[in-house]
Amino acid sequence: MDFQLTEEQEQLSETARRYAREQLPEIAEEIERTGVPPNKALLKQYAEMGFLGINIPERFGGLGLGNLEALIVLEQFAQISSAVAFPIFESCVGPVRAIEKFADEKLANEVLPAVCRGEKIVAVAMSEPEAGTALTDLKTRAEFKGERVIISGTKRWCSGGGHADGYVVYCRMSDDPGARGIGAVYVEKDTPGLSFGEQERLMGFRGIPSSDIFLDDVTVPAYQVVVPAGGFRKLMEAFDLERCGNATMALGQASGALEDVVAYVQERKQFGKPIVDFQAVQLKLAEMRMQVDAARLLIYRAASNAEDGLPDILHSSLAKCFANEIARTVTSNAVQLMGAYGYSKEYPAERRVRDAWGWGIAGGTIDIQKVNIASAMVGRRFDQRK
Ligand SMILES: Cc1cc2nc3c(=O)[nH]c(=O)nc-3n(C[C@H](O)[C@H](O)[C@H](O)COP(=O)(O)OP(=O)(O)OC[C@H]3O[C@@H](n4cnc5c(N)ncnc54)[C@H](O)[C@@H]3O)c2cc1C
């Protein structure tokens, strides 16, 4: 067991850190003010730097590195803001990975290289008005007619809704009840019958558009099926990696806040001395550091144990649950330690608290991760319906 990153991983982290800190803070501020997500020119720049599709195989235009490398880079961007990190999240741990692993090679060839070039953003549309935690209650239907698939239904809370170029839509593809009837189809934004609701006004996640999606007899060729009915387990396997990405986005809120606070408490003077000289401040700093380090180690463990495959549900749920919880605590403590400056919108501290709350709901709530963990611990699934 080795707790050090390799020299290559350190270099990659340093490259991402330098780029993110030199190029992105002003852009992040602008995005926060306007709510407008990163534009395609910025995505092109990310692509040229190799930050999109870090862990996507080279034959699809990615760097062909591991999941751990992708998560290391993601944290550096997430420290600046969720919105500037989101394209990296989507390209490295988002629904494109389900396309890469399970879809027809023709679809993978159409989608993945464009994602890695920064020309396409792909979002995931799972949740519905009446299917949140109980995702397997989803009602959106996909019917096969010869070589075509016709999809109808309503999706909710899609991050990227109305902005992304393509959507991996979870659908009911057979009359089998629950998970057994579920599969997923890839749908391009401009497909006739696809429309979007108003942009949601969320507590945080500014610059990550979110909306309902309406599918009204949306017709796509059959090769755009990512997984057919019965493939829900595969979708969830790919989702175990997304869970590690979510955990890393939460971690980035916490580790970014901690870094700012360590500098602040050494500069800010009260009673004639830096506030770091007060023991109450020292204790808070130490607690924050313990939480950040532990979250990072849980994420690294989930990614490393999987090598270049997909992480398992126990380790990805442990990482997500812990990172989600500590992100809320650490970012709140950062606001407190920065006093009125922490509470001001002139600084990123308060935004990080709002975003930290979102990461603990998106991708499965904190409590449902705990159900996953307990389930893995005792080796059986708990039926939530009986
Ligand atoms: C910022 C953000 C981004 C999102 N992005 C996307 C996206 O890109 N694509 C997408 O498809 N969806 C997305 N979602 C939706 C997200 O997946 C759901 O919000 C999430 O699964 C929870 O569902 P819900 O909001 O309907 O809450 P509910 O399922 O109604 O849950 C409400 C509360 O009840 C608790 N609860 C429910 N069932 C149980 C149970 N069995 N045991 C214990 N507690 C339980 C939950 O923990 C929660 O605290 C996003 C949500 C947010 C907030």
Structural class: alpha+beta
Query: Mean pLDDT across all residues, rounded?
Result: 97
Query: Treating each run of at least 4 consecutive H or I residues as one helix, how many helices?
Result: 13
Largest sheet: 4 strands, mixed
Radius of gyration based on Cα positions: 21 Å
Low-confidence spans: none
Beta fraction of the residues?
A: 5-15%
Number of DSSP E strands:
10
Termini separation comes to 42 Å
Q: Percentage of helical residues?
A: 40-55%
What is the strand arrangement across the widest sheet?
1-4-5-8
Label the overall shape.
globular
Sketch the topology as an H/E string, one letter per element. Answer: HHHHHHHEEEEEEEEHEEHHHHH
Bound molecules: flavin-adenine dinucleotide
Could you characterize what this model shows?
The chain is of the alpha+beta class and 386 residues long. It has 13 helices and 10 strands. It has helices at residues 7-23, 25-34, 40-49, 67-80, 82-92, 96-102, 105-116, 232-267, 279-305, 313-337, 339-343, 349-359, 366-378, and strands at residues 122-125, 141-145, 148-159, 166-172, 182-188, 194-196, 210-221, 225-227, 269-270, 273-274. It has a 4-stranded mixed sheet. A hairpin with a 2-residue loop joins strand 2 and strand 3 (148-159). The protein is globular and about 80 Å long. The mean pLDDT is 97. The structure holds flavin-adenine dinucleotide. Residues 123-127, 132-133, 157-159, 202, 205, 358, 361-365, 367-368, 371, 384 line the site of flavin-adenine dinucleotide.
